[in-house]
Write a structure and sequence with these properties.
51% of the residues lie in helices and 10% in strands. By secondary structure, the chain is an alpha/beta fold. The radius of gyration is 37 Å and the shape is rod-shaped.
């Protein structure tokens, strides 16, 4: 495998006092097969001197790096090393990496001006390049590196460099490794992790998934569990089907422990629906309340009324099949002999009885304390009050949900019921508490199968996996 080295050339290269400069010390450390040294274009004379530095040092000190493997490239800075185009650094590195597919890449983050080094690090980090970065420490007893003094000639300069190379204390068998690998990617990962924590705290799994998807293969390879967890959050928040067994065995998490029963569907919908409450999207929370109130009303009738009136077979068959309506003239076919129940079922002007939330709540209210064939129908405390309240919120003229659902004036709706509306938040919390109490009441014998705090449990595990 090729070992490709990329570096700017700084004032401490190739030698720093009586020691190797950063480039030569890294040469000794990693033994690259090919090196790209980027020269700033201050003057042609300066460029020639830097070439001389490297070539002479390689020849004199017995490196196992051939001068022929060192490629010098001019890097345009308009005559001033402090002036350069950031995109040119990225384009240069991309060209080098594209020319050596499958190679192992190294970069020097010591040589060059502070601006050039910072820009090199920024490019590697922001593009998630698979490049190992090395920094070289100065020798413990170093002296000032060679810088040309005003008035000195090029021949004097070369002579001084040659003398220093001759006295170089870094020899093939006695040199000290001062180059250490630096994990500059950790700086970017810190920013990514901070963004992910904020998104997860806001239950924004779609945004967190997008953040991760934009990262390179290096990040993705190291965070497979994190990606899986965030994907579960994204899918559950959109009510998509997930592998419940994999979630349970892999992370000990579940929405509902059991088969695909009605209870399972209610648990999944409740969790999906509650996310709107957690994110303070109260409008969506109210608009999506109907399905769960409808199912809870069905469950309530089957649990507290049906056992006392099992002889109403056709009526319960109709409800069990979730039939949405019946013609008024066919009500008698249900063979309900309880007084006034038929009048409780309110038809429309077209003679159709729709078994919606309002109708089911009316049936629940009708049977309260009723003397049914198999005994009186007794409800848990406050259950009837809870359904009446949900009916008022959900349906009927002037109800909160209808007010939200049947208006084109969204601006006014947002002004009245936006996130900043304290009244709307209070009403949403009331609905949340009522539904939660009904779930606990209806499924008291199976409540351990429900994980009603699913997203908070998921977030706790996700945060532990963000590193």
């Amino acid at each position: 495998m090729e070992r490709v080295f990329i570096s700017f050339v700084g004032s401490k290269d190739p030698v720093f006092g009586c020691y190797d400069g950063p480039i030569l010390n890294i040469f000794r450390t990693i033994a690259p097969t090919i090196s790209y040294l980027l020269l700033t274009d201050a003057t042609d004379a300066e460029e020639n001197k830097k070439k001389f530095f490297i070539e002479r040092a390689l020849l004199e000190n017995g490196f196992n790096v051939s001068p022929d493997s060192v490629i010098f490239q001019k890097f345009d800075t308009n005559g001033n090393p402090a002036q350069f185009k950031l995109n040119e650094i990225g384009e240069t590195i991309s060209r080098i990496m594209d020319a050596h597919p499958g190679a192992e890449f190294f970069a020097n983050v010591t040589s060059g001006t502070q601006q050039l080094i910072s820009s090199l690090c920024l490019d590697i980090v922001s593009n998630d390049r698979n490049v190992k970065t090395f920094q070289t420490l100065d020798p413990q007893y170093s002296i000032i590196g060679y810088t040309e003094k005003k008035g000195s000639t090029e021949s004097d300069f070369k002579k001084r460099v040659a003398e220093d190379i001759a006295s170089n204390r870094d020899r093939p068998h006695s040199w000290s490794c001062r180059s250490v690998e630096v994990d500059i990617a950790s700086f970017r990962y810190s920013a990514i992790n901070q963004a992910l924590r904020k998104q997860i705290a806001d239950y924004n799994y779609e945004g967190a998934h997008d953040t991760i998807s934009q990262q390179g293969v290096g990040f993705l390879a190291r965070h497979d569990k994190l990606i899986e967890l965030i994907s579960y959050g994204r899918d559950c928040s959109a009510m998509r089907k997930i592998d419940e067994n994999a979630l349970l065995t892999g992370f000990g998490l579940y929405r509902y422990k059991g088969d695909d029963s009605l209870e399972s569907l209610i648990a999944k919908y409740y969790i999906y629906w509650e996310r709107y409450f957690l994110t303070k999207d109260y409008s969506s929370y109210i608009l999506k309340m109907t399905p769960i109130v409808y199912e809870l009303a069905h469950c309530f009738l089957r649990k507290y009324v049906k056992p006392k009136s099992a002889n109403y077979d056709k009526f319960w068959d109709m409800l069990d099949k979730h039939s949405s309506s019946i013609l008024e003239k066919d009500i008698n076919k249900l063979k309900i002999d309880h007084p006034k129940l038929g009048k409780c079922l309110k038809p429309t002007s077209f003679g159709v009885v729709y078994f919606d939330v309002e109708q089911l709540c009316a049936i629940i209210e009708y049977f309260n304390f009723a003397n049914l064939p198999d005994g009186p129908c007794l409800y848990p405390p406050n259950a009837l009050k809870a359904f009446k309240k949900l009916r008022d919120y959900n349906s009927g003229h002037g109800s909160l949900r209808n007010e939200l659902a049947h208006t084109i004036n969204v601006e006014k709706q947002n002004e009245t019921y936006g996130i900043g509306s304290f009244k709307f938040e209070v009403e949403s919390r009331n609905i949340h508490d009522i539904v939660l109490s009904l779930v606990n009441t209806l499924f008291s014998d199976k409540i351990d199968n429900f994980n009603l705090g699913f997203f908070d449990s998921l977030n706790e595990i996700i945060i532990k996996n963000i590193n």
